[in-house]
């Protein structure tokens, strides 16, 4: 963005004053026309960048100025709001021993590797790479390239766009929900948490967490099967009310399990980690 603005300033200056330094009129006219074309092209790129980033623009500019050559940890995930009789269905996390919403990070496709190499994007060094975590959008990107990564993600090109995979892996494949009643699911987009940059005490680096929240729209049979899960909670999944989520698992003076902070995003679109 900064280089676009700088180039735009140079072209405008040439358009205004450049002709006086070039006595040959045809050459001056040609360069003036080229300058006009360049100004239009740069304005178009600036507008496209703004439309791609929208409310994320200022965070990206801050990251470019404050952490240009520092890696920022970015995690981009989708979460399911599964709500039955006043409680939310949560599952045990794979990497941290806590309950959290059904869902997980998006994955990139192999075709994204060229762009990721150009932007010097690295995998998250804290999560071991295995068949489950490979291609996760849990990455590290330098502040000067953050806006390009976000623009790529918003374009939906060369990345996962369906939210079925994590739902299936966490609920259907283990047998908590039947394949007969859950061959597929419907869901609606609710909101995305605020886009902000914070310092992660756990990872000891600047971090951005993006959580897109979707609400499960069950069929009648699916709703009945979900209700049948209510009394059968175990160490791998629990039904938890809003108050217990806000208290991160504490209820009636006890804390039988831990609840991830970002679970609050299910019912609070403005939630930010402390």
Would you count the extended β strands for me? 10
Strand content: 15-25%
Our count of helices gives 8
Task: Find the CATH topology of the largest domain.
Answer: Nucleoside Triphosphate Pyrophosphohydrolase
Report the span from N to C terminus.
30 Å
Query: Which range best describes the helical content: under 10%, 10-25%, 25-40%, 40-55%, 55-70% or over 70%?
Result: 25-40%
How would you sum up this structure, described in words?
- By secondary structure, this protein is an alpha+beta fold.
- It folds into two domains: 2-55; 69-266, Nucleoside Triphosphate Pyrophosphohydrolase.
- The protein is 35% helix and 22% strand.
- The protein has eight helices and ten strands.
- The chain has helices spanning 2-17, 25-53, 57-66, 113-118, 146-155, 164-172, 220-229, 242-246, and strands at residues 71-81, 83-84, 87-92, 99-105, 122-123, 138-142, 186-192, 198-200, 205-217, 237-240.
- Strands 1, 2, 3, 4, 5, 6, 7, 8, 9 and 10 form a ten-stranded mixed sheet that branches.
- Helix 1 (2-17) runs antiparallel to helix 2.
- It starts with a helix and ends in a 28-residue tail after the last helix.
């Amino acid at each position: 963005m900064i280089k676009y603005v700088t180039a735009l300033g140079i072209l405008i200056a040439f358009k205004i004053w450049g002709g006086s330094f070039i006595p040959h009129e045809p050459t001056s006219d040609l360069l003036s026309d080229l300058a006009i074309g360049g100004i239009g092209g740069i304005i178009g790129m600036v507008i496209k960048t703004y439309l791609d980033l929208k409310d994320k623009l200022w965070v990206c500019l801050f990251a470019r100025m404050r952490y240009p050559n520092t890696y920022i940890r970015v995690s981009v995930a989708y979460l399911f709001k599964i709500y039955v009789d006043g409680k939310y269905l949560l599952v045990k996390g794979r990497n941290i021993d806590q309950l959290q919403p059904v869902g997980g990070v998006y994955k990139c496709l192999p075709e994204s590797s060229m762009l990721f190499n150009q932007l010097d994007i690295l995998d998250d060094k804290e999560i071991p790479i295995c068949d489950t975590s490979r291609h996760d959008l849990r990455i590290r990107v330098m502040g000067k390239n953050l806006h390009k990564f976000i623009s790529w993600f918003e374009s939906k090109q060369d990345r996962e766009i369906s939210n079925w995979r994590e739902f299936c892996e966490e609920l259907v494949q283990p047998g908590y929900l039947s394949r007969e009643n859950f061959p597929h699911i419907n869901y609606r987009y609710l909101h995305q948490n605020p886009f902000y940059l914070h310092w992660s005490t756990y990872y000891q680096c600047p971090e951005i967490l993006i959580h897109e929240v979707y609400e499960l729209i069950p069929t009648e049979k699916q709703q009945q099967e979900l209700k049948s899960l209510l009394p059968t909670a175990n160490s791998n999944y629990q039904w938890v009310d809003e108050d217990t989520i806000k208290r991160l698992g504490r209820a009636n003076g006890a804390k039988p399990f831990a609840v991830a902070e970002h679970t609050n995003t299910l019912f609070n679109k403005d939630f930010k980690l402390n």
